Amino acid sequence: MSRFTTDRTARRGAARGTVPGTDLAHMAGIAHVAAADHAATYNAAADHAATYNAAAYNAATYNAATHSAATHSAATHSAATHSAATARAEARAANCAVARANDRAETRATPRATPRATPRSPTLIRTALVALATAAIGGCTLIPGTSGSLMREESSVPLPVTEGAETVPANVKLQPITAQLIIDQHQAEETRFRRGNAGGQTATRGKADKSIPGFDYEDYKLGPGDIINVIVWDHPEITIPAGSYRSAEQSGTLVAEDGTIFFPFAGVVKVAGLTTREVRKLLAKRMASVIENVQLDVRIVSFRSKRVYVVGEVSKPGLQPIDDIRMTLVEAVNRAGGITEEADHGNVLLTRKGQTWRVDLQALYEEGDVSQNVLLQPGDIINVPDRELNKVFVLGEVRNPGSFMMNKRRTTLAEALSDAGFVNQSTSDPAWVYVMRTDNGSSELFHLNARSPDALLLAERFPLLPRDVVYVDVAAVARWNRVVSNILPTSQMLQLTSETRYPLFGGRQ
Fold it and tell me: In the chain, N or C: fewer CB atoms in 10 Å?
């Protein structure tokens, strides 16, 4: 071995701070002898490397000086018998072995501390977690929370759809909320109006709604319990006048239970189901044989045979008698003190002979649709429900999700989003705002792309119906964050477990 190689080895050993330079030279000589004798096999070199480890340990215990002196001459002789190229290669291997021996010697010389967690490479654990997260994102089965990613074109589940006269389950197509859709809806609402010559809008009655019987006005017909007053002119002996001590009801003629009355010179006459005009003609015909050119009049002084019932959100619920004033729906509601603030104007229920119809008083009040002012019949029940069902639901990525009460059924999509605090700017995807609706047994799905603020003008013109569901979809990055937030606790637990050593098992896991 040349002096240059020996000096370089000594400098490397000094830099490591392990053993003196002279000891390194002697140990390098030992390595050359071993390499010269066992160069044919790699295992022999490994055995001599183990010898270096023992030599380094002896050097740390101050015995290396004697051992190095005894072997220095053999190393010099061995180095001379080999080529310079082989010696340099062998020296590099010896230097690495010496460095490892020095590290082990320092470790053995350092007092042992109490066993504690030793860092290990968590590469395998991280790889498994990344694979799990990738599979979850790809399959969308392990991602928590709701998402509209499966209903971009149509509903992901079958919904009730009306086809002809039947309601069947089917997937509903998604309808985009566009300017054309707003125009079509507005034109549909305009069908109940016509434009006048002055440029204003005038309410038109249109065709009578034959689905609600009793729309056409009818005269009052007598029934059991009613009291009538018959006046025959020029014959006061027949007429019983109502004096100061007798009311008109007391002096009148009561319609009996069987619908008949008794009147002088006419006898027993059946008047139930007849109008006052028809009763007058009948009595005049009966009395014509007794009184020449009879002149008489029939008036109703007490209406007690017919009544309607007004219940629900009115100021004075109860029964309302039907009199000679035409009892319409508006008349009955006004007699009951009017509707309260909690009433649903557009959903008044009219029950007649076991059947129930819905009457829209709001259309009558605000749009002049007089077809909704139905003429009532005896026994009709008017129920004015409250507005608890007039709610819209705003869900998804909004600041304040929940249900919101509609004001007289007048709520637009923009108003509903505003009531909910608008979309969450951190987690929402405003390009996918859904409106889900079930009306008259059929389902509809609408979609608004509100990524641009001017699209909110379409939302302001899109009217909502009671029980509509507005859903704002979640952004893709928010879905990823949900996965990460759920995986992190498990990852941290596995990381802590992999870094822990257990003294009872010799520091092994």
Answer: C
